Amino acid sequence: MLEIKSINSDAFVQYGFPVEGYDFTELLRLLVSSTEKPEKGVIYTPGDGSLEKLPVAVEIRDSIFGGMPVQIGYCNGSNSTLNCLEYHRSSELIIAADDVILLIAPLQEMKDYILDTSKVEAFLLPAGSAVLCYETTLHYAPCNTSGNTGFRTIIVLPEATNTEKPDITNHRDEDKLLWARNKWLLAHPDSPEAKQGAFVGLSGSNITI
Prior knowledge:
Elements: E1 4-6, E2 16-18, H1 25-34, E3 41-45, H2 49-52, H3 55-64, E4 70-78, E5 84-87, E6 92-96, E7 100-106, E8 115-116, E9 121-125, E10 130-133, E11 137-138, E12 143-144, E13 151-158, E14 178-180, E15 183-187, H4 192-195, E16 202-203
Parallel strand pairs: 1-9, 8-16
Antiparallel strand pairs: 2-10, 3-4, 4-13, 5-15, 6-10, 6-13, 7-9, 7-11, 7-12, 14-15
């Protein structure tokens, strides 16, 4: 069974760090009051105008992302399976309204664009807390905790990330992983994304929490 580790443990240091010193209360209140939480599957919205209008959005942009334009969206629903891992050319801020489990792995463990899922680790992100995950952290949709019927999470990324894939000519092998704007994806062969044509880059078991 996969050990669920703490975001405050030494094991998390290579992936990112807990973000403290900001008041995310209003952001999470609006997330819970204005967005749906499907009972099956997850929904993802790259940017939500109501969330982005809150005063804390400016603090996130100017302090956490150093003044770079960002989008504040959400990933809500119910999930228990790895299915895929993705990475961006940027860090990602995740703020949890509910307890969630993050399944993550080091990008450096990817060999010839294949990652063995035995390299994946699980971390508990408690409700009300936030982490900034580095560019080199492979990740995907959060998972439910035991007894949790679903979750809502804030996702902050550079503006336009996860929107329409650019029309590119493949110049190198990594280009086959590009699934959306600023989104490189490794799919497990059993995942819905693989059936949709995503690059199959995960070997081993399709981890279930």
